[in-house]
Amino acid sequence: MTTLPVAPLTDEMTDGGALASPSVAVSDCPPTARQTQKEATRRRVLAAAKELFDNQGYEGTTIREIARRAGVSVGSVFTTFDSKGEILSQVMQDRLDGLYAELDRVMPHLRGSTLDRLRTMFAIHFAFESRHTRLFLAHIAAAYDWTLPASARPMGKTPRLQEIICDCLIKGVAEGDVDRQVEPQEIVDLLLAAYVWAYRLAAWKGATAAEMTTVMDRQIELIAAGFTPR
Known about the structure:
The protein is mostly helical. The chain has helices spanning 11-14, 33-56, 63-70, 74-80, 84-106, 114-129, 133-141, 159-175, 184-198, 200-205, 209-227.
């Protein structure tokens, strides 16, 4: 497999650095003091929540703890976010926007088969998320919280990731190594299920990104056996 060299993403590149989504001015009017204060509260809440989720997990963190760590009142948290799930969703969106921007840059230039490209894509994911494994496990855990409001975006409600995988499969159809009769969304679902399940190794055994990538490579090969033309 021949691929472009991919530099590992850093938190500085995704949490407000070079690859973070740029701020877009929606008004020429300067922000009011109230708006400035609200934005400052929002940033403090997100920073506090990210640290707590990463250290204690999603279930082990309360809104009260987030407020205390951020130095704001519980009421101020709820005037900014509807729920703990929405806070986690925003924390992860701020991180993942940079990762997806990098994948958008890299994926169109990867050579090799669809199998090879999928392996590379998930290896990038493991390398990125393994630096904050507990935070990502919190993201996964929130997907099974039936009390989450519709505004929350846990793992699984991340359409951009699904689009990237689907684009890879569609390219494979055009190149002839993905069966035209296969439903792409079914393959996307299988790949994401394998990806999420691999993180049990991090939770149970402290597996590294390389170890989880090795497991995922084998699972991608098994899934690929089902979508390769016969």
